[in-house]
Amino acid sequence: MQIIIRGHHLSITPAIEHSIRSKLQQMTQHLDQINSMQIKLSKDHQIDKRSKKGSANHIAEAIIRLPGIELFAQASADDMYSSIKQMLEKIKRQLQRHRAMQNHYPSLAIE
């Protein structure tokens, strides 16, 4: 399984990369069908005029490719760790739904 982590307008620290990789490994250890995963972390430099701070300007996106299906999740928050956590929760729900659908309809599962 290939995991690509990219940063847009920010640098990826080893702590962030390790955190993402370990959580994705735990989440997908029972799914051997995953072809690739792409994680994009970005920072929007828009400034809120009232508070002089960026509001929800740290964005985390994930694309997970399985045979015949592609899962996408995006989350934004005031800090990067929160947006990563929200994005991983969304991906986890999608993977659970995908597993349930495969177990419920085994004839529709793509091999």
TrEMBL record:
GO terms for cellular component: cytosolic small ribosomal subunit. One of its GO terms (biological process) is negative regulation of translational elongation. GO terms for molecular function: ribosomal small subunit binding. It comes from the Bacteria. Pfam families: Ribosomal_S30AE (PF02482). Gene3D superfamilies: Ribosome hibernation promotion factor-like. SUPFAM superfamilies: Ribosome binding protein Y (YfiA homologue). Keywords: Translation regulation. Belongs to the HPF/YfiA ribosome-associated protein family. Short HPF subfamily. Associates exclusively with 100S ribosomes, which are dimers of 70S ribosomes. PANTHER family: 30S RIBOSOMAL PROTEIN. This is Ribosome hibernation promoting factor. It comes from Acinetobacter larvae. The lineage of its organism: Bacteria, Pseudomonadati, Pseudomonadota, Gammaproteobacteria, Moraxellales.
